[in-house]
Each structure stands twice: as C-alpha cells, then as structure tokens.
Amino acid sequence: MATSLTHLMPRAGRTLLSVAGVVAVWWLVAASGLVNRDLFPAPDAVWSAAVELYREGALFGDLRTSLTRAAVGFLIGAGGGVLVGLLTARTRIAGFALNPLLTLLRPIPAIALVPLAIVWFGIGEGSKYFVIAYTVFLAVWLSTHHGTAGVADTYIRASRSLGAGTLREFFEVVVPAAAPHIVAGLRMGAALAFLSLVAAELSGASSGIGFRIQEARQFIQTDRMFVGLIELGLLGALLDLLFVGLSRRLVHWEHL
Question: The dihedral of CA 119, 122, 127, 128: what is its sign?
Fold first, then answer.
C-alpha cells in the first residue's frame, strides 16, 4: 500500500515533503537546546541571514559570479573531456600516449591545484576556470572513454558489413552507443564543477559563494555559511534535474 502511494504521489510533492521533513528535524534539533545555536543555527536564523545578504546585494551577486565561473569551467572541461575520451578510446596512439598521464592525474584533488593555479594564472578568473575545468575534464574523460571503448563489437561488425565508412561508423554507431555514458559523465562533471568551484573560491577570490562561506567562517557567522551551503545544494539539484531531462531527450532510446 505504501509503495503504491509513493508511485501515485507526484515527484514534486515527494520532494517538498522530504524537504519539509528535513527542515522540521533541523528546527527541532536547533530548538532542543542540545546544540549551540551559534554553531548550529535554526532555520529562521538562516532565513534572516539570507534576507540580509539579499539586501546587501551579495546573495544574487555571489550567485551570478559563481554560476559564471562554474559554467565557463564546465564548458571547457566537458568539451575537452568528451574529445579526448573519444580519441583515447578509438585511437590506439592517443590511448597509449594519454591514458597513463590521465590516470596519474585523476587522484589529484582540485584543492591541491589551487596554489599552482594561482602561480600560473594569478588570482583572477583564469585560475578559477582552470581548477574547475581540470576537475570536470577528468570525470567526463573517464566516462566517455569507458563508454566509447565498451561499444559492442557486434555493432561495429554489423555497420561494416552494411558498407559504412569510418566516419559514418563513428558518428552513427560508436557515438550513439556511447552517448549514455557521455551524458552520465557530463552529469557527474556538472556536480563536480560546483565542488571544485568552492575550492577555487576559497583563496584568491573577492566574490562568489565559496568566498562568502570563507568570509563567514572568519567571523563565525554560521548562519551565512548555511546560506551558502544551501545555495550550492539547490544549484546542484536544479542542474541535475536539467541533465536528467536532457538525457531523456538526447538519449531517448535508453528510456524506451
């Protein structure tokens, strides 16, 4: 019975119900007196901090700045990741030359590259784009490479038996077969763009959500820190929903 009700309930309704439950538990914990409200603010305090940031012009200013940085870094990293992933999976020379290097780079976290990015590009926007693009690139490359390299040989043999040329085989067989993995990589890359965004903005920035969280930490303004964290969570959730919708349209054969 409970399962059927869950299926009948619209997704938006389930989401609102879940959020309401989390806020209720949050408020109860903050109001219980078991925690220091200066360290764990109540929802109403966080709301007041958000209103104060809005009146100062920082709320949407930081949002616009961070979105621009995330978008530019994502486009650079995703474009490079898809291109290199296709090359390393389908070209033996590219795979031999690049796979070891990229495998070595993957465990290096974005936060570790921030000092180097500042030395290379200064404290301007270039260093932030680099950190975000680096993180997105590796995630998209791995997913694209895995999906492209895993295209079934039966598809390749069938296309060749029908007389398909190399380019037609690539664009009409390989790319569509690997598309679900590519889209999954882009979806992961979009989430990682926000993670690396915070790392990029924690130093050498004078605006942005990550900068505002760091500034609030220095003055122990946990209500403002919560505002930034909630902003990041909402942005990530909305972007994920966007990618889910796009994947259903662009890779519609996977949902038949």
Answer: positive
Looking at 23-32, 57-66, 156-165, 195-204, which range is the least confident one? 156-165
Per-residue pLDDT tens over the stretch 126-135: 989 999 999 9
d(CA 209, CA 233): 11
Q: What does the alpha-carbon distance between residue 202 and residue 212 come to, in Å, rounded to a whole number?
A: 9
Please report how many Cα atoms fall inside a 13 Å half-sphere around the Cα of residue 217, on the Cβ side: 9
What is the pTM (predicted TM-score) of this model? 0.83
DSSP 151: -
pLDDT > 80? residue 91: yes
> How far lies 205's CA from each of 50, 111, 124, 151, in Å?
21, 14, 8, 43
Q: What is the 3-state secondary structure (H, E, C) of 17-77?
A: HHHHHHHHHHHHHHHCCCCCCCCCCCHHHHHHHHHHHHHHCHHHHHHHHHHHHHHHHHHHH
Tell me yes or no: is domain 41-255 CATH 1.10.8.100.
no
Name the nearest CA neighbour of 184 among 210, 150, 153.
150
CA-angle at 105, arms to 114 and 149, nearest 5°: 135
